[in-house]
Write a structure and sequence with these properties.
single chain; alpha+beta; elongated; seven-stranded mixed sheet; 3 domains; 34% strand
């Protein structure tokens, strides 16, 4: 049995504990913009706010930083495609309005006290489009890949990641296309021993960041991927999502990030030199990939050209049948070499996506190494 004195002591301790918890809850650091509470990541010194789509750039800011004198300053670095030429600090008060300058804004928020200055990267965006930032100490070129780090800022906290070790290079480089596309590898074992899930994609570590510069609607590639994924339950087209991209603090615009097409996506076996036949993936890279030019117009994806060397045999055999076989021989053998259902799906896809004039240069063809394996098609990335 508890004595009254013991019970009183327990009640006092409980009251103190509850008071302490309430103090922490109601006085902890917070910041909100436009009535939307920000996510503060103290470890990575990042504050992220996703405002409703269509929000105005002039929004009220409210904040409280525990045990600080609330000397808070903002230094605007960029908004949308415009970088601030001469960023300067501006002191702000809680409850005042700040002009963010656009639908996407990057600033430094400095919390200053008598003892220290704490700087946060403040990111504000509207809608549900995540922001991807890539940092590298090296010049990014078409080859080789260079070391980099990637961070993802998303309204979905489960997809928010910081400083992931990665490698990056330019792809699809053309002199008359000023907006670069990128190939991005997440270094294995960079997050708890596994490649991370990114933006609802299945676990992967190879991605493309496509500028879609020649498609001003910015819909065709995404539409192609999404439609083709609905044709089958085998996920034989890349998962993809739009994102705003910053590279070395420079705004690059809207991009489509997608899984990179490789043997993992098609569940193909690894290359083994000892085997007689190998899994293959060929990418159609230009209009010459119509099979009348042999392997010209195609790029070998699998086996890896750099490490395993060229392996054009299966592609040349298919091209020979298409171009040189008599009609009777062609009709007899084509279904043994090509999955006709995949061909029809691919043809329907191009009709729906409105890019019939570019069919030759907008697909991958792939085949496993098992006995009786046939070529199938998957939409490309141009």
């Amino acid at each position: 049995m508890f004595k009254k004195k013991d019970l009183l002591m327990i009640l006092v301790l409980c009251a103190v504990l509850v008071s302490s918890l309430l103090f922490i809850i109601f006085t902890r650091d917070y910041i909100s913009i436009g009535g939307v509470r920000a996510d503060i990541d103290d470890k990575n010194r990042t504050i992220y706010v996703s405002l409703p789509e269509g929000s105005l750039p002039d929004q009220k800011i409210q904040f409280n930083f525990l045990f600080k004198n609330n000397n808070v300053f903002i230094k605007k670095l960029s908004y949308g495609p415009k970088e601030i030429e001469d960023p300067s600090e501006e002191k702000i008060e809680s409850g005042t309005f700040i002009d963010l300058g656009g639908y996407i804004s990057h600033s430094k928020l400095i919390v200053r006290s008598a003892f220290s200055d704490i700087e946060y990267d403040l990111w504000v965006t509207t809608g549900d489009v995540p922001i991807i930032t890539i940092e590298s100490d090296y010049k990014i070129v078409d080859e080789p890949k260079v070391d980099s780090t990637i961070s993802i800022l998303s309204a979905d906290s489960g997809h928010r990641k910081y400083n992931i070790a990665s490698e990056i290079e330019l792809i699809d480089v053309w002199e008359d296309i000023p907006k670069e596309s990128y190939s991005l590898n997440i270094k294995e074992n960079s997050i708890t021993g596994d490649a991370p899930e990114i933006l609802d994609f299945k676990t992967s570590n190879r991605f493309r960041l496509s500028s879609s510069y020649t498609d001003r609607s910015f819909l065709r590639q995404k539409l192609a991927y999404d439609i083709f994924r609905q044709f089958s339950d085998k996920d034989l087209a890349p998962e993809s999502r739009y994102a705003e991209l910053y590279v070395n603090n420079s705004y690059k615009g809207l991009y489509l990030i997608s899984e990179r097409v490789d043997r993992n996506m098609f569940s193909l076996s690894n290359y083994k030199k000892s085997q007689d036949t190998h899994s293959v993936i060929y990418e159609a890279v230009n209009s010459k990939a119509d099979f009348t030019n042999g392997e010209e117009g195609f790029s070998q994806v699998e086996p890896d050209m750099d490490t395993d060397g060229p392996y054009p045999g299966p592609l040349l055999k298919l091209a020979d049948l298409i171009v040189n076989a008599e009609r009777k021989e062609f009709l007899k053998d084509i279904e043994d070499m090509v999955d006709m259902e995949s061909v029809l799906d691919n043809h329907i896809l191009f009709l729906l996506a409105g890019c019939t004039e570019e069919q030759a240069s907008n697909n991958y063809i792939y085949r496993g190494n098992e006995n009786g394996a046939r070529f199938s098609f998957s939409p490309g990335s141009h």
